[in-house]
Amino acid sequence: MNNPARLLLHGLIAAACSSCSAGHSSAAPGGTCADGGRCSDATPPANPLCPDAGRCITIPSNASEPDIAAAFAAAQNGDAIVFAPGTYSFTNQLALGKADNVSILGSGSDQTTLDFQGQKPGTGDDSVFAQSVNNLRFEGFTIKDSPGNGIKTLSVMGLTFRSLVVTWSAMDNTDGAYGLYPVQSTDVLIEHCTVSGASDSGIYVGQSQDIVVRDNEVFGNVGGIEIENSFRADVHDNRAHDNTAGILVFDLPGLQQEGGHSVRVYSNNIATNNRGNFAAMGDIVGMVPAGTGFFIMANHDVEIFQNTFTGNKTGCAGIVSYAVTQMPFTDPNYVQYPSRVYFHDNTYSMGGTHPDLSSQIGFLLETGISAFPGGHVPDVLYDGIVDPNAAPGPNPMTICVKEAATTTVCNGHFDKIDPNAPALGKTVVCDPKPYDCTLPALPPVSFPGLSP
Fold this sequence. Notes:
Elements: H1 4-17, E1 56-59, H2 65-73, E2 80-83, E3 86-89, E4 94-95, E5 102-105, E6 112-115, E7 126-131, E8 134-139, E9 142-144, E10 149-154, E11 157-162, E12 165-167, E13 178-183, E14 186-191, E15 194-196, E16 201-206, E17 209-214, E18 217-219, E19 223-228, E20 231-236, E21 239-241, E22 245-250, E23 261-266, E24 269-271, E25 292-297, E26 300-305, E27 308-310, E28 315-320, E29 339-344, E30 347-349, H3 360-366, E31 380-382, E32 399-402, E33 409-411
Parallel strand pairs: 1-2, 2-5, 3-6, 4-7, 5-8, 6-9, 7-10, 8-11, 9-12, 10-13, 11-14, 12-15, 13-16, 14-17, 15-18, 16-19, 17-20, 18-21, 19-22, 20-23, 21-24, 22-25, 23-26, 24-27, 25-28, 26-29, 27-30, 28-31, 29-32, 31-33
């Protein structure tokens, strides 16, 4: 019996091969045309996106959704699936098969659009999905109006997202949660991408290892970039603006991988992240006040340096325990306290002037305004909640802030707040001396194939 997916795939191949003529070549899949390879060895493929090795499966602008889905499902090791310029509309999820070394390529984010506005309920939580493969690349296209997550990958070893746009038109709580969403993956590179409108996080990397997120733009999301429960991440040279919060480094209980550590956040521009929070009800990012530049929750060994924080109305940077969520947990292995956090050589301006009074945290910060230096939330605010098992001392969690003398640093001592009459003005201590320390620089992230 003929396999329908294989017949559809052969149809795409045949269409590409049929355009071969003397002295010309098409973007036909290598190894499938009559000559056993490209249409002509004398000339390069008409589509320059086709790689030199492996099959190149060209998706023409008039390809049907079943044909495209079949090409994804039947991909073989080393394939490149290349979309011609055009807008492709989908009613179902696109799920990649189990092949390794596959590339999903568009003709450019301004040329190729995958539109999922019409994706039907029950066809998947993600618009594009891949799982348990090696060396996977997405590059050069736009994903628009996904009802769920834009691109989710699970358990991928060697993953690249490059020159992508993920966007939602509404920019409200009807939008999908995550734009680019790798989970439980290793050797992850996300670069030159733009994500806007995510109702949770534009770029989210969770429970993963060896991660580089660089030179991206995130705006109009609840969280711009989030690194969660991950080990060894470099987040640098990104532009996070006009989100609810610019960049978040979280560690949460009850997940397969915990104890997030060795995260470097540097050389980012984190500006005017004052958009109202539109996260779905119950999402943990729903607690984040609008106007948040950056904060760390419950991670250890985090280095934050050479960033520019500008115009984030609730606050530039925070260091908090999971305890601020007031959400109970039963995970006996989870450590909810941040430690060994090192801020240095950052620039802060025009932050903390108008905390978001619609959030509990923002309202609490407003109660301390008169006690904060200059009458605004400090540039670096530590919640002061300490692990009871830590060695006693003025700085038991080793929080180091080595900044310019003009930088304001305060311990809010959330641990001492009266729950019956919460007010920071009674507990805050704005003395930078206990935190005037340094920590060894964390090493850069490196993995096979990563170029500078």
